[in-house]
Specification:
four-stranded antiparallel sheet; 162 residues
């Protein structure tokens, strides 16, 4: 029997999500065989989870080095003022910038943590001039260059309830 959870997904949905996070190219027939439902039921569930934004995107994950993005940088950014309009402006600028792969508004000593991709340090320097030095509200930033990407992923644990 399938247990319905507060967020509207049950163990079948969780199993489907687990499979899709491994490879979203898995066919409905293959998923159906693994979860014990019909292919049509799997398709309906996937469609519903997309509509409810449980599944946010179906994407291909690209190897950065294969496209000339040779370095990754983790950047802590501190703002001068944390007025809502200035925060929203910074969030939008980071969301719109192609070099920013991830942006987190955080607690602690920094206001934002960014994961930035660049071809080389010269390109990153251009990024800092444009994004940080060109913004009067950026108080400071600290950069960590990634030496080795030990684990990089976007999958979310979707543990099955028993």
């Amino acid at each position: 029997m399938s247990h319905q959870l507060a967020n509207g997904i049950d163990n079948f949905d969780r199993h489907i999500l687990d499979i899709l996070q491994e490879s979203n190219r898995t066919t409905s027939d293959q998923i159906a065989e693994q979860v014990g439902l019909s292919a049509a039921a799997v398709q309906r569930r996937i469609k519903r989870m997309r509509e409810q934004h449980i599944i946010r995107a179906d994407i291909s994950v690209v190897n950065p080095k294969a496209v000339g993005q040779n370095i990754s940088l983790i950047v802590q950014v501190t703002l001068e003022r944390e007025r809502m309009d200035l925060l929203d402006s910074f969030k939008k600028a980071m969301s719109d910038h192609k070099s920013v792969q991830q942006c987190y508004y955080v607690t602690g000593s920094a206001d934002f943590i960014l994961l930035v991709s660049a071809a080389d340090m010269e390109e990153y320097e251009e990024f800092t001039r444009e994004v940080f030095f060109g913004n009067d509200n950026v108080k400071g930033f600290e950069t960590n260059v990634v030496m080795d990407s030990v684990k990089s992923g976007l999958s979310v644990p979707v543990l099955l309830n028993t």
